[in-house]
Amino acid sequence: MSRRRLLLITLFLSLALHLALLGSDVLPEISLQPAEEPKLEKIDVKMQALKLDEPAHKAPPASAGVNLVPVSETQAKPTAKPKPKRKAAASQPAEEKQAASAPVEETAAQPAKASSEPAAEIASAPAQAMRRHPEASAPAPQAPADHEADKGFVHPDAALSSFPATAKIRYQGYWNSAMVGFGDLNWQREAGQYRLDISVNPFIGPKLRYLSQGQIDKSGLKPDSLESFRGGDLKEEARFDYAAGLLRYGGGASKQEPLKPGAQDAFSLAFQLALKGGDLGRAPVQITTAKKIYQYPMAPAGAFDYDTGDGKMRVIVFRAEGDGDVTEFWLAPDFANLPVRILRADKDKRIELKAIRVEVNGKRQWELPPQPTIRNKNAH
After folding, report:
1. Which of 319, 333, 314 shows the shortest CA–CA distance to 37?
2. Predicted TM-score (pTM) above 0.70
3. C-alpha to C-alpha distances, 201 to 52, 66, 144, nearest whole angstrom
4. Which fold has domain 166-367?
5. What are the tens digits of pLDDT across the range 245-268?
6. Domain limits of the chain?
7. CA distances from 46 to 146, 161, 302 (A)
8. Which long-range contacts link 192-200 to residues 24+ away (Cβ below 8 Å)?
């Protein structure tokens, strides 16, 4: 058999195999989405710094061998639930938005907020309890005219004014505008410590994972380490050596630079911005990806009505550019300033994570319904 004939047979078999796979369920679903270059607007809503409630500590058991869970005062003396107040619209004028995002005072009639409880799982609220469009809850004839602008916006079930004890965000992952997998963010804090675990699971290729751990108090996040994994193997790590005043990074943390005050890793930075209401000052922030170290100021670049595919979220976009790299965090003031979109780009690639589900303190606050793809289905 000639080489030419063998090559033609090989090409034919390869084409037949690909056609068979496209007609089956073997290949992953791919949702193509053009790169979005939003035109940012002037910031007309002020991000608020969040209250850092310390999780309550459980009382010791009353006797050996018996575990008694203390009953809170609100459980012992149930009171009538206060009538929920109407939430301010994300697209209302600036002064109304500031009032909507500002921390609210606790009242005796309100139950303790979930963020002040230990970082334990809480049963998710039923889907029907989620209020994505709160304007629909008021009778149309009585709705004020200025609430018309709220149509099409999504909001949490209740105001979130305290920094989360736990948060989980599910993302769709995009590489140069093509959906290539899913990502998960898992945030936990307790007893002055935090753990931020981010994993990216592509349809094809190794799993990526980033683990940031450190301390947290009212002054903010103070990272101790960032570890970067590829396919389960540790590739790079960053060690914040405060005693020696050094930031060690790279493979085996073999490189080092002087550690500067307020240093963050690339992932703790988003939560530092969230806790501080975006105000990190004007000085450049030392930031490490565990592979490199950058220094640039983090300031809001503008506001944007981010279209999630199931309503809009008002977000504040923080952008940092340096050495040909671009990092963006899209923080949602109505959702405890959490990052609902993260972008990392350079001259060769553009990687984006776009939220499709947000949980705060164990309660699901918003989820994107299944969206059509090129094969008319999409699983989260």
Report:
1. 319
2. no
3. 31, 43, 46
4. outer membrane lipoprotein receptor (LolB), chain A (2.50.20)
5. 999 999 999 999 999 999 999 999
6. 166-367
7. 19, 13, 11
8. 192/54, 192/216, 192/217, 194/221, 194/268, 194/271, 196/267, 196/268, 196/271, 198/267, 200/173, 200/353
